[in-house]
Specification:
Layout (H helix, E strand, L loop, with lengths): L3 E13 L2 E12 L2 E10 L3 E9 L6 E8 L5 E6 H10 L3 H10 L10 H11 L1
Antiparallel strand pairs: 1-2, 2-3, 3-4, 4-5, 5-6
Length: 124
């Protein structure tokens, strides 16, 4: 079982000039590493999706999967600097702020057996 230390999700859809738009942002940072997903869809013609996942073998490398419209999905390796540039170019301020400044500050805490016994006594 993996532990999630940080999760951010933002999703909204709206109609602009009669065309349905959808935007989704997601960040999950945990024991298995960092993963970022961004989707922007405007009507049926414009589609853009990126999925970034931290490489399990090399923690400073990321695997980027990018798909535009009906083109085939492109997969490539990027480093942390390139990831920061990509996030800034897409104007994903919340995500780029997390990756640059806040990443690693959130830690999961384990509950010891002593504390769980106290909690169980109070409940019973």
């Amino acid at each position: 079982m993996s532990t999630v230390n940080y999760r951010y999700e933002q999703s909204f859809s709206f109609k602009k000039k009669g065309i349905k738009n959808t935007v989704r942002e997601q960040v999950i940072d945990g024991q298995t590493g960092l993963s970022i997903m961004y989707l922007k869809k405007e009507g049926d013609n414009n589609f853009y999706k990126i999925y970034v996942r931290e490489d399990e073998k090399n923690k400073n490398q990321f695997v980027l999967k990018e798909k535009k419209n009906d083109d085939a999905e492109v997969e490539k390796q990027i480093n942390e600097k390139d990831l920061a540039k990509l996030l800034k170019s897409l104007k994903l301020d919340v995500i780029s702020n997390y990756v640059a400044n806040e990443r690693g500050t959130y830690k999961g805490k384990k509950i010891t057996k002593k504390i769980t016994k106290k909690i169980n006594k109070r409940i019973a």
